[in-house]
Write a structure and sequence with these properties.
The protein is mainly α and about 260 residues long. The chain has 12 helices and no strands. Helix 7 (about 110-130) packs antiparallel against helix 12. The two termini are about 25 Å apart.
Length: about 260
Amino acid sequence: MLAAVIWGLIQGLTEFLPVSSSGHLIIIPAFLSEMGIDVPVPSLAVSTVIHLGTLAAVLIYYRREVMAVLRFRTNPEGRKLALLVGIGTIPALIGLPLADEIEGMQQSVAAVGWQIVATGVILVIGQRVATGVRRLMEGRIPDAVVVGVAQAIALIPGISRSGVTIAAGNLRKFEPAEAARFSFLLGIPAIAGAGFSQLFALPDQGGFTPELAVAMVVAGVSGYLAIAFMMNSINRIGLYPFAIYCFVIGLATVIFF
C-alpha cells in the first residue's frame, strides 16, 4: 500500500508540474531503494492506468471547457477547443505501436536522469520565449501542430509532457497561463487513450488491485492541486524554478546511478 500511495503522489504532482511524471516514477523508487525502502518501479501498464486518476483531476478542473466541447454544435468556444485539441492529439498517436520500445527506455535510470536534465533545458528555453499575449481562442492549426509534436516528444521517459507543451505554447506566443491551459486540455485525450488501452494489459500484471485503486485516487487529488497551483502561479514564478529542480534531480540521478 505504501508503494501505491507513493506512485499516486508522484503521478499526480508531476503530471502537471513540468518535471516529468514518467521520469519520477523511475528515479524516486530507485532513490528509495538506495535508502532501504522497497518501492518497486511500476510497469508501463500500471503507471499508465494510474494516469486515469490524473485524467479525473483535469476533467473536474476544466469541467467548463469539457462541457463546452460536448456542446460543440451550439458552442463556438467548444468547436475551437475541439479542433485545437483534436489536431494536437494526432502526433501522440505514434506512441501507440511503440509501447515496448518506450518501456525499454525505462531500464536505464541514468538515461532517464539525462532526459530530466533535457527537460530542464526545454523549460529554460520555454521561459525565455514566454512573452506572448495570445489567448487560446486565438489559436490556429499550426499552433496545435507544434504543441502536438511537442507532446509526442514527451513519450520519452524523463521528458515532461506538461513542460514541453507549455514551452511550445510559449514559443507560439500564447500568454503563459493560456499555454498551460492548452497543455492540460491537450493531455485529456492522450491520458485517456493511454490509460484505457493499458487496462487490457493489467490481467497479466496482477489485475486491478485495491492498491492500484488507491494510487489512482491519490493521483487524482494531488493532480487537481498541482493544476490549481500551476494555473495560479505560472505568471508569477514562471518555469525557471522547475528547470533548476530538473537540473538538480537529473544530475543527481546520473551521478548516483
